[in-house]
């Protein structure tokens, strides 16, 4: 038996893993003032973007803005290393608009490593954790595979896809958390402690040599001008002339970036024929992969099989960095054999001569059903032990980072014997995410959607700081300097709201004019606009424009809460209820909930689904008379 050695330094918090969850967990604990250690299998892969080097997107962009509002690092790092910035759903309402940035893969990774190494109260060390040390139901330390013991008061596990990770390319498979990186056996120790585990699967597409792509056969996709950003504060971007991985800067008060284009193409009927002809070589369709994959990010094999009526699927060619020719092929995640991958890629317009630099692959990994956690993300089984990220059954960098922030903050606050930092689902998408996980669990890799939030009209990306920065400052996650700037922003917002209410144009208060679709900041007289920055006016306009909608949504949510006991008739034909997604109908038919409350607790059923069912039942008089008699009368607000 090998000897063990105890590290002389005892830490308040130890974070296991250095992906997006681990980074936010370590930085959060350190900012709160705890002596923190991050342990990672490889210091050179801190913050590595294993799949698409992009941050944000629908609902995910909201989460990143919330992370930034709470003092997290992801948003600013994405802004500093972004190479294309876009606002998705720009033509739709502000609650569903979301920023997305394509990052320079290596710049993002190396800049984040530097952020960690410069952080106060934080050490980073290379080691593979193999055991969690528990005494009397409390965590007391960790042990590495080389016999090094590190004593601590709290541990945050953020092991991503590395727990018994298994990589698949065709019929070939090997152990690994991602291509070229080793897997971890820590999940076996966690099982022995008593945790229940499951098995999930994810995947990634191939990468192509940009010099072998015929871009003239593709459609160009340019970034937005001005570029939409994630961070509410950008002062740090110009803090060091020697920061070679900070690609973008503030010039003359404006965010500056030289954007690179992405390109759009699509699969062809020949592509689909190639895939169908080789399904017998796909580990997904031969039963070699046992784990459940992400339904909302399917492989190209699944797309072709499940959507057989479609003759083409859109493909995005996205650059992986400013100083590399590698292109990420967004839309063809696959684990087919290498030769099949090359054949199907070369059947796509613009890619006839394409060269694969890295093949696509699938990875199976262990996760721990998150119903074993408290809302703080502390485990119910072991005091002081926290789980965050893909080990909780989620998918995506953003969902992982959000959990890391919450777990790291609470690990530190527990050590300091201070109240926990828990966000309600009515105040943040992060609250929705964690509530869904710890209450419902998940039967597939969890991905955030705006439809999961009851109060999505209020949870906009542009007001995340107004919702969260006060609370984050109280917990110690936001610096005094930043909080002072935030308070000044709130003062300006209050000033603009007062002006809007008290000032009339043509005899009508500006606050009422803002509610009109044909009136906006651009219609204000210059002397009024000059009172506060335009960005402040835009926030105020949005608040007034959607005030009635958010109030109505709140009323509907209160009604739904009361109607939790509303019965659902057994044998209800869900196909008659328009507006429900096909997967929702399938789950409801299979599980046959007897009330709206039961339906709401089913994994994957969203508040929007519940609202649709409730309205349909009411319109068709399929409800208890008791509810009709006892339900309080809510007054609709304009």
Number of helices: 20
What structural category arises from helix and sheet content?
alpha+beta
Number of DSSP-assigned strands: 25
What does the main sheet amount to?
8 strands, mixed
Mean pLDDT: 92
Task: Provide the low-confidence segments as ranges.
Answer: 624-638
Distance between the termini: 73 Å
Query: What is the approximate shape?
Result: globular
Strand content: 15-25%
Helix content: 25-40%
CA-based gyration radius: 25 Å
Write up what this structure looks like.
This protein is α+β, with helices and mostly antiparallel strands and 638 residues long. It has 20 helices and 25 strands. The strands form six sheets. Strands 1, 2, 3, 7, 8, 9, 10 and 23 form an eight-stranded mixed β-sheet that branches. Helix 3 (74-81) crosses helix 4 (105-118) and helix 6 packs antiparallel against helix 8. The N and C termini lie far apart (73 Å).
Helices and strands in order, then pairings?
Blueprint: E1 5-6, E2 11-16, H1 20-32, E3 36-40, E4 54-56, H2 60-69, H3 74-81, E5 82-88, E6 98-103, H4 105-118, E7 122-126, E8 129-135, E9 138-144, E10 148-157, E11 166-169, E12 172-175, H5 186-193, E13 198-204, E14 207-209, E15 219-221, E16 249-251, E17 254-256, E18 262-266, H6 269-277, H7 300-306, E19 314-319, E20 326-330, H8 338-345, E21 356-358, E22 361-367, E23 385-387, H9 397-415, H10 429-440, H11 464-475, H12 480-502, E24 504-505, E25 508-509, H13 510-513, H14 526-529, H15 534-545, H16 547-562, H17 582-591, H18 596-600, H19 607-619, H20 625-630
Parallel strand pairs: 1-10, 2-3, 2-10, 3-7, 10-23
Antiparallel strand pairs: 4-6, 5-6, 8-9, 9-10, 11-12, 11-22, 13-22, 14-20, 14-21, 15-18, 16-17, 18-19, 19-20, 24-25
């Amino acid at each position: 038996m090998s000897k063990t050695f105890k590290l002389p330094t005892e830490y308040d918090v130890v974070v296991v893993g250095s992906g997006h969850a681990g980074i936010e967990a370590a930085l959060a604990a350190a900012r709160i003032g705890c002596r923190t250690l991050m342990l990672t299998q490889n210091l050179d892969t801190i913050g590595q973007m294993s799949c698409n080097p992009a941050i944000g997107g629908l609902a995910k962009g909201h989460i990143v803005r919330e992370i930034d509002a709470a003092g997290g690092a992801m948003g600013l790092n994405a802004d500093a290393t972004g190479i294309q910035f876009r606002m998705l759903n720009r033509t739709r309402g502000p609650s569903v608009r979301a920023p997305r940035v394509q990052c320079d893969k290596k710049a993002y990774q190396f800049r984040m490593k530097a952020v960690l190494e410069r952080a106060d109260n934080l050490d980073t060390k290379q080691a593979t954790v193999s055991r969690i040390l528990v005494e009397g139901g409390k965590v007391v330390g960790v042990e590495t595979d080389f016999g090094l013991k590190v004593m601590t008061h709290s541990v945050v596990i953020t092991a991503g896809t590395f727990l018994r990770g298994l990589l698949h390319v065709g019929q070939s498979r090997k152990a690994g958390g991602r291509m070229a990186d080793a897997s971890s056996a820590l999940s076996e120790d966690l099982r022995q402690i008593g945790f229940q585990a499951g098995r999930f699967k994810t995947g990634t597409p191939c990468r192509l040599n940009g010099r072998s792509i015929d871009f003239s056969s593709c459609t160009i996709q340019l970034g937005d001008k001005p570029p939409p950003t994630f961070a509410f504060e950008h002062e740090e971007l110009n803090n060091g002339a020697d920061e070679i991985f900070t690609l973008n800067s503030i010039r003359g008060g404006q965010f500056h970036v030289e954007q690179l284009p992405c390109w759009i193409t699509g699969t062809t009927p020949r592509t689909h024929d190639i895939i169908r002809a080789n399904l017998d070589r796909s580990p997904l369709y031969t039963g070699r992969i046992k784990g459940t994959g992400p339904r909302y990010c399917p492989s190209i094999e699944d797309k072709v099989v499940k959507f057989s009526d479609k003759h083409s699927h859109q493909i995005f060619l996205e650059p992986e960095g400013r100083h590399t020719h590698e292109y990420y092929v967004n839309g063809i995640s696959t684990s087919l054999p290498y030769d099949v991958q090359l054949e199907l890629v070369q059947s796509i317009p613009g890619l006839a001569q394409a060269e694969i630099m890295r093949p696509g692959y699938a990875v199976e990994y262990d996760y721990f059903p998150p119903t074993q956690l408290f809302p703080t993300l502390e485990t119910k089984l072991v005091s002081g032990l926290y789980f965050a990220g893909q080990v909780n059954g989620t998918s995506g960098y953003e969902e992982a980072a959000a959990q890391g922030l919450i777990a790291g903050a609470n690990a530190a606050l527990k050590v300091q014997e201070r109240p926990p930092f828990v966000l309600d689902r009515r105040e943040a998408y992060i609250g929705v995410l964690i509530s869904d996980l710890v209450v419902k669990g998940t039967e597939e890799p969890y991905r955030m959607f705006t439809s999961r939030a009851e109060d999505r009209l209020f949870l906009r990306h542009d007001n995340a700081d107004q919702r969260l920065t006060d609370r984050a400052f109280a917990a110690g996650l936001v610096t005094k300097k930043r909080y002072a700037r935030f308070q000044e922003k709130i003062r300006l917002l209050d000033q603009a709201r007062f002006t809007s209410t008290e000032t009339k144009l043509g005899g009508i208060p500006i606050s009422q004019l803002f509610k009109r679709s044909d009136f906006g900041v651009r219609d204000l007289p210059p002397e009024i606009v000059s009172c506060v920055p335009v960005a402040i006016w835009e926030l105020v306009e949005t608040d007034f424009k959607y005030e009635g909608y958010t109030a109505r949504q709140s009323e509907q949510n209160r009604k739904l809460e009361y109607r939790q006991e509303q019965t659902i008739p057994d044998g209800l034909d869900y196909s008659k209820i328009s507006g429900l997604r096909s997967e929702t109908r399938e789950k409801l038919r299979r599980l046959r909930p007897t009330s709206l409350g039961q339906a709401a607790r089913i994994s994957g059923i969203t508040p929007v689904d519940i609202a649709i069912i409730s309205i349909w039942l009411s319109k068709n008089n399929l409800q208890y008379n008791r509810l009709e008699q006892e339900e309080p009368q809510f007054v609709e607000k304009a």
